[in-house]
Structure prediction request, 426 residues.
Amino acid sequence: MFQKLAALPPARGTLSWLIQLIYTTVRLFGQNGLKNHAAATAFYFLLSATPLLLLLSYALQLLGHIAENSVPATILMAALYNQMQLESLTELGFIPRQAQLAAGGVGFATLVLSSRGLVNAVQGAFRIIFPDQSKRNMVVSWVLPLIILPVLFLLMGVAALAQVTLSFLGQNDFIGAGNAQVLQVLNTLLGFAMVWALLFAAYWRLPRQHPRARDAAAFSFGAVSSLALLIAIFGAFFKLENYLSLYGALGGVVFVLIGAYFAFWLLYIWAQALFAYGKVDIAALEKLFLGGSGEGASKLETYVFGDNNRLLEKYGEVHPPGYTLIEEGDDSRIAYFLYAGRARVYKNAEAGRRQLGELNEGQLFGEMAYLLNEKRTASVVADTEITVLVLPPHIMEELMRHSAPLSRRIIDTLCHRLERMNLVPR
Prediction:
């Protein structure tokens, strides 16, 4: 029989897990060079947004012709110019005053083609965040980028259009200020939900090994909330006029590029956090198995992974002296880490049961059956009261995949054990 270790106070266990999650996320984010991917994605976003200005100019011309005979079109056009400051953008040269139909067609074609570069940049970053060797379907990889960005900008445009129209109508007492504010709040929540749905689809479906839907939903909510905070900070501390005074006509481009960079930076760091969410235990187990925090570990890393109580509560078992943890010939594939105590290894032979060796604190054992997919080749019996961490096959698989140093140590230990077993008399 065995007993589980006493549970930690919930607050302490949660805090330890959260610190390890944040540390693992930041470390992986830096190792994967995702800041550079955010910069590249922001560039493709700007490249995709450029033809939108040309298309916007053409759309405004069409709206102007319709507004000559339509009151709603006139209100809509006034709302756009008033709320989005289109006249100022036109005077600064961001939006051309005249755009021919052919130019609008070229702008749309450029938008469709540049969307491939943007979507591919996002997919490339996700392949690094969620590493997987399998390849995507060729048709999907070519067709999806040509569709997704125009649809994305269309949805964003509809939400922005509704927002500015309601704001204009409320300011000019067409529907009453109170009703306009309620509708604006509802429209803001709708925009929030649309962005959340897009990020949820990206976090859930872009990784080849899809995370759980509820995890993707939670991290998508965090990403959207961070984006909302970023927009509020930009609105309070960063002004387009400042960039225009510094860079002239290019100030708007610099402003959009900086905003897009930080937006995609947040997108990727939350995606990296989603990946790290499933790897926190693996990272903590790796540090424990390699001896503390590993060779050359920083003081910060030692502090983050120095508390093993959470791992002991989740994976730990305590067994009395004489308990047979592993029986020779069994089909089990569970591996163990001896956290405290001492155990002995025995093997059956013609002359009787022989002792192969002794297991001390800090040793990983029982992995041979998992690696070789064979029955147990020896028995392990507790010599004193022992505390072990129980590692199912899927945990061992993740550890071997995650940590090259640990894999080398396991293989080296396995070779030495096989060598000792061959010296035992039959």
Observations:
- The longest helix spans residues 34-67.
- The first strand starts at residue 316 and ends at 319.
